[in-house]
Amino acid sequence: SARVMPTQERKLFSSTLFHKIFKAHTSLSLKKCKGCLYKISTSMVEKGTSLLKMMEISVAEAEKRTGKNAVNMQETYTVYLIETRPVDAASEGTNPVPDSLWRRYSEFELLRNYLLVTYPFSVVPPLPEKRAEFVWHKLSADNMDPDFVERRRVGLENFLLRVASHPDLSSDKIFYSFLTEENGWKETVFETGFQAKADSRLKALNATFRVKNPDKRFAEMKHYGDELQSVISQLLRVRARAADRLYGVYKVHGNYGRVFSEWSAIEKEMGDGLQSAGHHMDAYAASVDDILEEEEHYADQLKEYLFYADALRAVCRKHELTQYELEMAAQDLTSKKQQREELATGTIRTFSLKGMTSKLFGQETPEQREAKLKMLETQIEEGEELVKERNAECEEFVKSAWVDIERFKEQKDHDLREALISYAIMQISMCKKGIQVWNNAKECFSKM
Amino acid sequence: MSASVVDNTVSSGNSSVAIPTDISGQILDLDEDDELEVFSKDTSTTQTDGSSFNASMQTSPASMINQYKFEEEEEDADTKDIFVTVDNPESHVTAIETYITYRVETKTTRSEFDSSEFEVRRRYQDFLWLKGRLEEAHPTLIVHPLPEKFVMKGMVERFNEDFIETRRRALHKFLNKIAEHPIFSSSEDFKIFLTAGSGELTSHKKQGPGFLSRMGETVKAVAAAVRGVRNRPQEFTDMQEYAEAFSQKISSLDKVTQRIVREQKEYLEELKECGPTYALWSQSEQELAEPLKNVAGCVDNCCKETEEQVKHLNDHLIPVLHEYVLCADTLKAVLRRRDNIQADFEGKTEALATKKADRDADSKVLSLAWDSLVGRSPEEVKQQKQQKLKGEIKEMRDELDKAEDRLEWANNALKTDWTRWQKVMRTDLRSAFIDTAERNVSYYEKCLAVWESFLQSQRTDAEGNGKVDSS
């Protein structure tokens, strides 16, 4: 379903609020915009996504609620406001009030689990992390911390936008009602019975170990997913530690401010210069907060792909499962055919319990053999059907999954490259601030 | 008992004023009259045999100070006429010990030096000796501190390369500060330090005031310290307060800077792992491989720059701050010594007053009873006593006058040197801070260039691939 948006639609698109947001994303300066700081892949949007064409989506606010949970205990949780607005309405110049409803994180999780089961061949966009990880000392690991909540809000919006721009996922009804129907959505999801369709962990693990001939590309992709997860984790860890240290360096400079100020009180000619230099040291110390806040957004971008790696591996595991089931069916068929042959020719080529027992207890009667043969024939027929079915499933899966994996690869390359560029821009901004502060300080020192 | 008396001719001015060095020693030795004697010596051996007494050089302390001030202002305008460098550390191994010597090279146009270039080797002990001599000779002048004997924190080997280099730099600064000081630079001891062969230096060192005289000095100092000063002039109290406060502030700055260096080093440790992680990642990627490798390179470059910056802080700012921490202690010591001189004077004043009271009170009868018991006539005894007292009083008055002169001299010397020191301190610290600020700017500029080149490469890439990044 890759198609480029015709010019007419593109014009419509450009006047929406979302597109303004989108435009900010593609610019190389990090202007903070309403909504998220993430960039949505240009290619995705341009290739035409059904839902995003029709509506704007945003996660506008977060609020704390208290209520009774399943075991009747008081709990505090956060809810997020999802706002939607038809694209056309905004373009007409009027600014209608958007439709909105509140959802909590667990509902997002439910939605995602549904999508995972229902679209096993899609690389399903990840949710922002459940608990704060890779924290450094200033960041709070508390889920209720306002900074964490804010970053989660942004992450949730990003999730919705990604789903809404996905060629397959965006047209899902459950997704649509998640966005539009506050009440009864949960029941609707459960009614789909998706939970029953979910593959058990054990089954999946078993398949991974036993599959004989998985598609090479998927095996490579899985391996890539492992590597990606490992290296991004490492990068996030190192980055968090470095951020911690950098925070220390900047903050200690604040002490210069204090001492310079105290010192200036006992000096005559040096006093003014020292005092003003001290102010700049304070400014320097304070500047690190903004710097690291911006870096946190970069970390969030990396985290998204850390979790995407998992989604990627899930698709590969599903392939292994379908392939394994095909192989099982084929193997079963082969063995049944063999049994038939043995029975028909009377030769026992392979060891079988039947063979042994017949040797021990004597051959069966011709009638018994006939019956058995007939049963086998039926089974073989069924088996062949099953193999054909499974084969088709497998092929279908491989085809769809590979399309989405390619799409994902392109998106990842684009997004991560943009992330690296924005990181460079952040560093440049930090350097510029540093140059300014120290030049100012130098001037003050000259006046000492 | 000899004091080191040298001809301190200040060369830059037209008039040559011989400024006595160790006055207190001289006073003890001399039994001439009250006027300050000035001896001129032009050999390294010291004998107070009053060799050449130049009457024209007899001046009062006050006028000498004026001369000093005049010289100081002139000196600022003049170019340096003596250049001292300390370099080339070498280790020497003997049966008993291992030690380091440094090459001290002097280039000068001063007339009192026999030649224009000198090269000698000196060890830390020699520097200590020189400092001690200068302090002895000028108790209320501020001698720039020497690097410490050994590092307290951590087990720093004396022969560790960094330690030796740090020490060498500090020794170099020490000698240069002495050379720049109007009074110290004309010190005979300084000249000997710069020019004498090692044998000559050793024998000169032995010529210092003997053990007994030094003991005497110490006892006097302790006595004065115990006595305490009664009427310290406000200006010296102000100086004391300043010295205290300055000491605190500069120590804080030293600590803050050391903390910054520590944090920077730890930051560097973490940052060093970032580059390789990006490089590792690039190995799993295709499209992203190039930008990732690029970023890895950028991070590594920034690491190098950070390392340089930390080194600079360590090698330049920290030693200067450390020097001034030691200076603060010197200030306090100098003020203490001045106090002791004043206490000594006050003590002598009191003693004289008491003696005078004794003399006046003697006309009262008190001890006459005893004397009559012993069989002397009251008149005789009284005469004897009066005679004795008169002698004692004269002696004490002489001592008192000398103490007063000493005090006035010390106060003026201190005041002048204090002002001088403040100017030097201001210059030193200002340039150290400016230097640091410049270095930091340079650090950020270099990192900026690194990341901008990355951006540039990505833009060129994008344009090359037909994608256009809006910017």
Automatic annotation (TrEMBL), chain A:
Q: Which SMART domains match?
A: PX
All residue ranges annotated as the PX domain in the record: 58-186
Q: Which GO terms describe its biological process?
A: positive regulation of autophagosome assembly; protein transport
Give a GO molecular function annotation for the protein. phosphatidylinositol-3-phosphate binding
| Sorted UniProt keywords | Protein transport, Transport
| Matching InterPro entries | AH/BAR_dom_sf, PX_dom, PX_dom_sf, PX_SNX4, SNX4, SNX4_BAR
Q: GO cellular component annotations, sorted alphabetically?
A: early endosome membrane; plasma membrane; SNARE complex
Q: Which family does it belong to?
A: Belongs to the sorting nexin family.
- Spell out the protein name for this chain: Sorting nexin 4
Its source organism is: Cyprinus carpio
Q: What is the lineage of its organism?
A: Eukaryota, Metazoa, Chordata, Craniata, Vertebrata
TrEMBL record, chain B:
Alphabetically list the UniProt keywords: Coiled coil
Q: Name one Pfam family in it.
A: Vps5
Q: Which residues form the PX domain?
A: 80-201
Q: Name one GO biological process term.
A: autophagy of mitochondrion
- CDD domains, from UniProt? PX_SNX7 (cd07284)
Q: Which GO terms describe its molecular function?
A: phosphatidylinositol binding
According to its record, what are the GO cellular component terms?
Answer: early endosome; phagophore assembly site
Q: Which InterPro entries would you find in this protein's record? A: PX_dom, PX_SNX7, Vps5_C
**Coiled-coil annotated spans:** 379-413
Show the SMART domains listed in the entry: PX
Q: What's the protein name?
A: Sorting nexin-7-like isoform X1
Give the source species. Answer: Cyprinus carpio (Common carp)
Taxonomic lineage is: Eukaryota, Metazoa, Chordata, Craniata, Vertebrata
